[in-house]
Amino acid sequence: MPEHLTGNVLEADYLVDLSNVVRRPGPRGPGLHRLDQVIDALIDRDHDPDVVLYLVADRSLPHAGLPHADTRTLRDWEQAGLVELLGDADVRLLELAELTGLSVITRDRYRGHRTEFPWLQGNKDQFIEPFIERDEHEGHHGYQGPDGPESRLLLRDVDMGIVDDWNISRYAEHDVLKKQGVLTRFDVLERAWRCPHHACTLYDRDHGSFVLIPRIRAGEPTCELHGSRLLDEGPRPGAAAMKVLVDRRCVDRFVIPSGTEVVVGRAPVDGYSLDPWLANHERLKVSRRHFALSFADGNLTIRDVSTYGTHLQLAPGSPLTVLRGTERILGVGEKVRCTRRITLTRSGRRFPNELRTKRAQLTTEDHEATQ
Ligand SMILES: [Zn+2]
């Protein structure tokens, strides 16, 4: 299971509300076996055997009546930086969801957090709920999963709905602050941070293989441990992550570091080679240098350098768009079609520019809905 976990939220495909996922009662009681079931369901959902999760849990979770072996596992994961254990796991999850645009696996609706995180209102595309098949079909025992009669765990997208007693005046205040540019949360991921407290290395980029994302308190990056405002250490080089899909299964991933260009094709001199995935009859369709991906100023750009053009599918089922010697920004969910079988797509993370646009749209819609 640890192979599916990461301590670097920027590498993750999903955020997991671990306490919520493992605590659901059942014949086997709460336990990490529920996380196993979620991972299996995500692998099915995404056709990706290497799905990567970032776990956030309540500090009390290891003492929450879990089997002893699970408590030990959680401690090991905490030591290895593979789970964040906090007093306010819900807030942390929503903070990370806001900063990265990643989807959250949870059954919670966070009804008490709508003022602080107004983008939860009416959100339909960022929360995924695990449920047990038998919950829906009482008395159906066709499938005997690892939980015995409890049956199989499935996932579904959740409409977070609008909470009625939502405090509009506080939301309005928040909105004013945002317009004044006080809350520039999305940029937090693009900067390096340091705690002013002596010897605190919690957010140190030279410390270990991953960097913990700062907490946001009153709109300011803050140390979780010391509560101090963090010092801005300048820009942090980011990277865009790409997935290679063959027959709709993810077979490989690679990154495009900020400020660089990666050429993709049948045989680029240095770049990403599609050769291992190409069948013989496909080789003629892919140029040696087919297209170039570059990541700069928070945008991933694709530029055609091929002989016959690069095909893009901008939405499921939509006709293909062709680039011929031209470039455009590649968005989340947009696919580069190399052959009928082979496509490239971005990982789940959204970039700050995209989050700004998305939240701005949501905010406008909410206002129209409530007025
Ligand atoms: Zn600190």
Structure in a nutshell:
Residues 262-313 form the FHA domain. With 371 residues, this protein is an alpha+beta fold. The chain has 7 helices and 21 strands.
Written account of the structure:
The protein is of the alpha+beta class and 371 residues long. Among the domains are: 1-108 and 125-158, Rossmann fold (3-Layer(aba) Sandwich); 239-346, Tumour Suppressor Smad4 (Sandwich), CATH 2.60.200.20. The protein is built from seven helices and 21 strands. The chain has helices at 18-22, 33-46, 68-79, 89-100, 133-136, 168-179, 352-370, and strands spanning 14-17, 53-58, 83-86, 103-105, 127-132, 153-157, 191-194, 215-217, 220-222, 231-235, 239-246, 249-257, 261-265, 272-273, 291-296, 299-304, 310-313, 321-323, 327-329, 335-337, 342-346. Strand 20 and strand 21 form a beta hairpin. Residues 138-146 and 179-183 have low confidence and may be disordered. The structure holds zinc ion (ZN). The site of zinc ion (ZN) has 7 residues, from loops. Pfam families: FHA (PF00498). This is FHA domain-containing protein. It comes from Parafrankia irregularis. Keywords: Phosphoprotein.
